[in-house]
Task: inverse folding
């Protein structure tokens, strides 16, 4: 049954999900995973839409689509974050692994033994990849092919460039130990430069976070209350017809309802938070998807600040202006 639903997805998308599962070390077959997620999303969408229609008479089709798409996006996001976490950890311990491998080679060990002995438990996912590569080399596979297989299981540009450089050095006859030591030193220097850059842009991250979490919701709350006050005052103004005929301007009530202002404000806040979180990820980590983790925090902070300020202002001005 899972495969039947999986075949409803385009082949290109299935291959993409299969690569993501390989990157994330998920052992489940891609067809089974896709079919299960689709069935779960459909079932959850039906249950939520039915309950909303029965309890609140809300449009079931609209909320079914919203719930289904939300579940698929959440699953894809969690998968992407898992892949990114694995890649970041490997990039962090890669210089130490290369240095240890070079030391093993200088001690007189063969390449496969140097790889296997470099797979320390503290290296986490990289230790598993080094173990696999070392075993493949020990069974007679060429070292360049075994190393390239690691890049097929880890989505990391740094690891890809490092292995490509090592393979190029091996093919040109370079000394592997020296090559590994130089790569380790270059990676450490690059990491120091990246840390300096991130520290220099930290002020921008703080400013954007504060603007999205506090500044924008407070201003929106003030604006919504201002609209309510103006609407209440204009509705209370009465100009006799004989007077209004003599003056060149006319005064009429505001036709925009308070509920429309609140809905527009909430939509604007959610959109700003999502886009702003992606910008935060791009500034702080260099990749937009790294900002997905900020979305939930900023949504809770932003919406809480908006409703809190709006409630306080309504309590203050309700007696004065009758809003």
Result:
């Amino acid at each position: 049954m899972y495969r039947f639903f999986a075949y409803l997805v385009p082949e290109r998308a299935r291959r993409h999900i299969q690569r993501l599962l390989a990157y994330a070390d998920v052992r489940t077959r891609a067809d089974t995973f896709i079919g299960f997620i689709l069935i779960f999303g459909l079932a959850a969408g039906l249950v939520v839409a039915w309950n909303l229609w029965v309890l609140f008479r809300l449009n079931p089709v609209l909320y079914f689509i919203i719930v289904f798409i939300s579940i698929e996006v959440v699953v894809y996001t969690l998968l992407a974050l898992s892949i990114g976490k694995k890649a970041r950890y490997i990039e962090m311990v890669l210089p130490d692994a290369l240095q240890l491998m070079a030391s093993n080679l200088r001690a007189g060990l063969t390449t496969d033994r140097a790889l296997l002995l470099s797979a320390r438990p503290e290296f986490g996912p990289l230790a598993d990849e080094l173990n696999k590569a070392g075993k493949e080399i020990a069974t007679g596979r060429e070292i360049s092919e075994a190393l390239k297989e690691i890049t097929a299981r880890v989505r990391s540009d740094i690891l890809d460039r490092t292995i490509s450089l090592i393979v190029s050095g091996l093919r040109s006859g370079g000394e592997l130990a020296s090559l590994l030591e130089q790569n380790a030193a270059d990676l450490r220097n690059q990491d120091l430069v990246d840390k300096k850059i991130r520290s220099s842009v930290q002020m921008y991250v703080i400013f954007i976070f504060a603007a999205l979490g506090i500044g924008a919701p407070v201003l929106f709350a003030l604006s919504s209350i201002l609209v309510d006050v103006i609407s209440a005052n204009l509705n209370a103004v009465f100009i006799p017809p004989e007077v209004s005929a003599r003056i060149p301007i006319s005064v009429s009530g505001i036709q925009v309802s308070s509920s429309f202002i609140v809905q527009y404000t909430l939509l604007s806040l959610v959109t700003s938070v999502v886009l702003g979180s992606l910008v935060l990820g791009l500034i702080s980590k260099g990749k937009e998807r790294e900002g997905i983790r900020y979305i939930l925090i900023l949504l809770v902070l932003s919406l809480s600040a908006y409703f809190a300020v709006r409630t306080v202002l309504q309590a203050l001005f309700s007696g004065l202006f009758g809003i």
About this structure: The CA atoms of residues 49 and 60 lie 5 Å apart.
